[in-house]
Every structure is written in C-alpha cells, then in structure tokens.
Amino acid sequence: MATGIKDKVAIIGMGCTRFGERWTDGAEDLMVEAFVEALQDAGIEKKEIDAAWLGTCFDEVNVGKSAIPLAQALKLPSIPVTRVENFCATGTEAFRGACYAVASGACRIALALGVEKLKDTGYGGLPGFDTAMGTLNRFILPNFTAPGGFALMATRYFAKYGISPEEGKMALAKISSKSHRCGALNPKAHLRKEVSPEQVLKAPIIAWPLGLFDCCGVSDGAAAAIVTTPDVARGLGKTPVMVKALQIAATSGEEMLTTRWDGTYLKTTTEAAKRAYAEAGITRPREELSVLEVHDCFSITELVTYEDLQISERGRAIRDINEGFFELDGKIPCQSDGGLKCFGHPIGASGIRMIYEVYNQLLHRAGPRQIPDPRLGLTHNLGGIPSFSVCSVGIFGL
Amino acid sequence: MVGILAYGAYLPRYRLERKTVAKAMAWINPAVWGLAGGEKTVAGADEDAITLAVAAARNACRFQRDAACEALFAASTTFPYAERQNAAMIREALSLPEEAAAVDVTGSTRAGTAAILAAAAQVAGGASKRAMVVVADARRTKMGSTEELLFGDGGAALVLGSEGVLAELVGTFSMSADFPGPLRENEKRLGRSWEERWVRDEGYVSLIPKAIHGYLSREKITADLFSALIYPCPYPREHGLIATKLGFSADKVADPMAALVGDTGAPHPLLMLCHVLESASPGDHILVVGYGSGVDVLHFRVTEAAASFKPAWSFDALLARKAPLTPYEKAAAFRELVPVETGLRGEFQAETPLSVQWRYRRAILGLEGSRCRRCGTPQFPPQRICAMGECQAVDEMEPYLFSDKPARIFSYTGDNLAFCLDPPQIYGIVDFDGGGRMMLDFTDCDLESLSVNQPVELHLRRKYHDGQRGVHTYFWKAVPIVSAQA
Question: Which residues form the Thiolase C-terminal domain (chain A) (predicted)?
C-alpha cells in the first residue's frame, strides 16, 4: 500500500503572470516573468534548484518540444529538465513531477513551470484536436471541439435529472456569473468585468446548450512553483504550504467503449478525488475543505465537478448553486481568483495558476478575495472531454 | 435465370428548388428560366458518389451485410478517384467478402446499365452466385448552365442472382456510339456540352428509339408486351417524343422524375427501375434503357417473388424525406465551386496517414469493432484488452460488425465552433442495441429535432476532403430517424 506524499513536500515560492492577450510577449517572456516572482518569493538562488519540469501542451504553436525552451529561457545550469504534457492536466502534471522528485529524495529543491501562448495559435477557442488524439482517432472521431465535448454532458445531465433547458442554463449562468465577480477583484485575471446571469443567457450559442459565457477564455500565461522538503522550507524561514495529496486518473476507455457510464459525471475526477481524499486523510470533504479551484473550462464542468468531488450530492449541485454555497462568501468558495472563466486557459499554466491561488489564500495574501481562516484548498484539472479524460486533484494545507 | 434479388434506391435529403438557381444565375444565362420548375436532389457537403452508392446498397440489403455476395460492380461518372479503386472502398464499407470481385464501371451515364450487364454475365457464367450493382452520381456543373438545373444526385443498387429472383433478365441489347453529348475531360472537374437542340434531337430522340427498336425487332416482340418503359431524358418534351416515336402509350412510360429529382446520371435508369419495381405485378414486363455514348436495353419480367421484397426505405419515403437547400450559395459551396471562408479549423488538415487507414480499414470503412468472447461486450474501435473494468480479457476478441446494428442517441450537441460546411456541426454519443458506444457525427438532421434516446441509422459519409493532397476520407455518421419508415 502506497503511503502517498502527504506532508512530504512544501511549496516555498510561487509566481504567476498576468493572464491575457499578451501580444507583445513570447512564451519565453512569460516563463521568465513567472519564474522571477517564484524565485523571489522562495528567497533562494537559482543554482539551488536541482531539477525542473516544464508543462506545455500545444508544442506546434508554442515553445516547441522538449524541455530545452525552459532551460534556455531561464538559463538553468545544465540540471535535469523534463517536459510533460497531459492535456489540460499538464500544469499539475509538471508540478507532480517536481513534488515526486522532492518526496523521493532525489532533489532538494525542484521547479515546476507551466506556460502556454494560446493567442499565437490564431484560434478562437483551443486549436483543433485532429492531431491531438492519435492517428486512428483522426479517421473516426467527429471533428469536435472542447465546448462540444462538454455540451454532450450538459444534454445528458439535463435529460437524466429532468431539468428543463431554461432551468439548466440558468444554473450554469449563475456559475459563470459567480466566477466573474471574483475575477473582477483579481489584477492577474484576463477578464475583469462582472457579468450577470442574464447576460450569460443572452450570449450566442457556441455548442448547444453552452453559450459564449459558459466557456472559458483563450489567454496567454505562465505560472511557477518551487517545492522542497518541509525541513528545508522551515530552515529557510518559510511558512511552508504543504502538499496534502496529488492524484491523477486517466480514463481506461470504459466510458467511451462501453455503455456503462451515464454521461453525467467524470469518472476520472471521481476516482482521483477519492484517492486524493484518502491520501490527505479527508473523510468529509464538504465540511473539511475551505476553498476550491476547479477546472471550469465550461460551466457544466464546474457543476458536475461539485458532485464528483463529493461536495454536492449527485443531482443536487443546482440546489447548492442556488443557495450560494460556492460564492466567495459562501461555505466553500469556488474559483476565488476568477477561475479559468476569467483567467482563460493557457493549458500548461492553468494547474499551477490554481495552486497559486490556493497558496495565496492559505498564506492570507489574497487581498479583497481573501477567505477567512482557510485550512485546506483543492485544485482540480480535467483534460480531454468527459468521455475521454485525464483528471488531476491536488490538496494543499498548512 | 439471372435476375434481380433485391433493389434499393437512395436520394440525398437536400432539395434545391430550380427557381432558386434561376434567380441566382439567370443573369448570365436567361435560358435557365425555361427550366426553372420543380426541384432537384442535391448531395450534402458530406455526400458523394461513394456514399450515395453505399447508402443505396444498404437500402437494398436492409442495412444488413450480404456475406453471400461474390462480386461488386460499382458504376459512376463522378467517383472521387481515377486511380484507387472506388469499388474496393465500397466493398469494404459493405463488409462484402474480401475475395468478392470488385470492378469500377465508368466513362458514361450508361455505366449503370453497363454494370448490370457485366454483373449479369458474371452470374450467368457461374463466376458468382450473387453480384451487387451499385450506381451513383453527384455531378458538378458550371454555375448558370442548363445542366445545373437539370441534374440531380442519387444512387441505386441491385443484387443479382439466379435463384429466387423477383425480376428476371429476359434479354438485352446494346449499342455504343461516340456521341459526344456531355463530355468531361479527365483532368477537369466540370464538363461542357454542345448545342442543346443537337443533344436532344441527335442524341436522346434518335439513339434511344433506335436501340429499343433494334431490341424489339430482334426479339420479334412489340411494345405492347411492356407494362413499363424506363428511359432517361431530362427534357420533358423530348421525353414524351421518344415514346410517341416508338408507339408506346404514355401511361406505360415511367415518370423520369425530372420535377422532384432531376437527371441523376448513371444511376438514373436504375433509380426509375427501383421505383417501378415497388408497384410491379407478377408477369409485368419492364424495359430499362441506359443512355450515354450509346444505349443499353434491358428487358425484365417480374415474378411472384416481387411481392415479398421491400427495401428498407421505399422510393416514396426517400422522396418525402427532404430538407430545402437554401440559399443557392450553399449548394455552390457544397460542390467546392467557390472558395468560402472556413476559418482556421476548416483550413488545417494534417497529413492523412494512409498506412493507418489501411491497417484499420475494416474499422474505418466497415465499422467493424470487436466483441469480448469472455464477457460479450462489443467495443469500437477494436481492442486488444477488454474495456470492461472487471473483465480485462487479453486477446480474446472476435470481430463484431456495428454497421448493421440499430443505435440510439445518448447525448448530442450542435457545435458552432467546429468547422462544418453545413453548420452547426452536430455530433454526439450513440449507444448501439446489443452493446457498444461511439462518438459520431450526426448528419441529415436539425438540432431542434434531436432528443436523447432517439433511434439512428448508420451511414457512410465523407469525413473530409484534403484537396491539397488529393485524399478523401470516409467514416460513418448517425442519421437520426425522425419519421416512420414507409
């Protein structure tokens, strides 16, 4: 039985760029920006970093393959650097590599950095998936988009629970509206305007039933984390933010290949969350968690994630939404920084950007968004589409 | 006696009103107003001669694989490939045996009847017990030409054999003639025609009666023998004139379907035959004429067995299943006649790995997956290790065909972001009766009419055309069933 990495790894420094249309900056600039902040925050010298992980997804339009772009942009001194990619879980995957290196004793201090220059792809929304799913799938999968893939879950969810399109869309609109209220308070967010549920409902349809404001933005950004052991952290005089759990679950194909999955939840999130709670020693997530940063690529994703994380009962997320449970002043604020909804989703950066918010909340550095007395925060990423997904769950505390 | 064992027609769902064409294009050719009555069938953006042929064959076979079929004759003037056999692709799609003879028949609109002659000879000579004839055309025409108004798109299929035939092939007569009516150079996408009066008078009205007369006099029979006379001619006045010239009474002349379908080219005589066979009585004699660079004459006699066969979709049901194609520009874009803004998503095309296509051809063209012999779960694409969590059997899979299984909508969306020449791109997940699940494009439907659990049929359609590298790819799409089948 694995013992997990609970309390074996501490975050001592983090950095995050302003997300947005960073037309004048290249991925290298974003990497440097996030790294410099993280290094200053950690209060260490660059030469103390033993290894680094780079998370980036679309290499064709980005920094290219391999980890060389990170090593080169930061001028890392010939240390091991690894590039990882796991769809939208890429950032967390990079962070996991750094954590495992520290937990194993292979490294004293490790860096994880995620970056993505989506605005250089030329696409509204993510670029096409035709080369991302392998050669056979290119012949047999529809030329779907991410909003379309998640819209399928919305039609299933509405059908299973007997929710009218009007009721369902209003619940989704409230999710987006809530995140915009938080994003408006965050200087690093891309979209900083409040949006009412009525405005969300009036937006043009991207993929039925999801409209424009049900979808997160397309942005550029980078985020970085420096991790070490709790002892080293204390030796540096830091208040270490501890990694309580890090779990990833990738689909076995059962959802897509058999008729067993009912299409209204994420099997991978559900499994990753169960394992993360076990690793962190959490038995009552609805009572124990203080703040959530979930993968709100689309409003419906956030809705089912409330259920997959065992915060809301199955089929009852809409009730919690209507009761304000996930608002900034609610029982468990979700997307206190604005989420993907307001940050956009530069894929490699998102997972670490979420950890950055939880880290700041735990250290009471979140300014007007600060949550009183946060104890445990959770981050969640979801790569692929609901029927074909890879999911990460991270839990952090002091 | 060699004859027809099964038949099926196929008409695309889209109809273009000729008035729409005339309104758009009469500025350059006012003569088109004279042809502006009625409507015509138009292949959708994801249809071509291959998909229309496959759809017709599946209609004839009631969506089942005909494993006994030992030969396939595929005819068209508009097959996508000049080199790479179209019949082989169709055979894969129909999951006919690999050893079945596969032949492309092309070169003129007479290709459809020529394919019947070839298939009948194959059966009569004993080389095959059952042979399939699939014929389809989706012709491109110049914008503003009379052909643009006359031509429609469609497909038809016949299964020929010698036992239990529902219409036996009594006799045939053929003549070829280098009548350069419509012509299309090999390297060109669009054809051209000589003067229309000459095409009508020296072509249709001269050659068709000549061949029919040749057959009747050779066999020493008269026109009275026939209860139906089938010949193509897209010009209504000349169509009537041919019958008069031969002494056929007008009520025996089959409707050329100009008003509702248009002239579909190679499949046209077969399409008309499918229509006639549905209401034919035992003992009826039917004369079928194929026209183009000459004339084929086929003489069928309907048997008692005719009453026991019905295609999956009747001709009337195919006619009734329709959606208007508007505006005119959409029809032009479907045929790639004019460049349209597709956005980056429509521009980008990665190289199509043809070795992968070959390795998985049964899955891609045949929709063949696998079924776990241990737990019985069907899976697509074929797997090595069973996807059922508690089974996980390794290499205990057997081939499993999905193309003949009914399915239902599990989830759906209409995607305005994904590139589609006929937006929105509608797709979703479908569950198959008997197990198995796929994420598929939907086609021939409107987003508003979809619902979870709705039944669907599986149809082979174009997936994309990579014009830069000359590759057409095909895969199966779900067609939601909205109305009861006739």
Answer: 254-392
